[in-house]
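Re-run with default settings, no changes from the original entry. Doing this only to confirm the output is reproducible before filing.
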Amino acid sequence: MNVSISVRQLGRKYPILNEKQLELDTSVPVITTQKIIELVVKHQVDMFNRSSFESDDQDKTHHPKENYLSVLTDTGKAGFGAIYNHQKPDLDAAIENALLAFQDGIYTVFYGDDELSALDMKIDLQENKPLTFIRLTFLAGGLW
């Protein structure tokens, strides 16, 4: 089933990941928040594992363009698309980390305008609303 996904961060004007269509491995239209997180993580791990690590493969390094410095100041991260860690991620550990981060409030998920605040909330994917993951940031220096 196709789902439109975007990733945002509070305090940022532009999304980290613009809307992207993902083909999720489900035929059931009504699923829980936990299942949607598991399906997205599974899709991303599968996509990462399909990427090649062979040193003889074509070099996919992208040369910086003239607007590269402004991109660096906006994101705070420099990268050329190279993968240096050749270890394949563990799907079960990735799903467990994603669910724990959701429960700990590291990120939140919206389906359209509706916040999915619990793992057992049900959503209907046939409504074709965009799914938005929002990364939450903590304030530094505050008193607990």
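DSSP finds three helices and seven strands in the chain. The radius of gyration is 17 Å.
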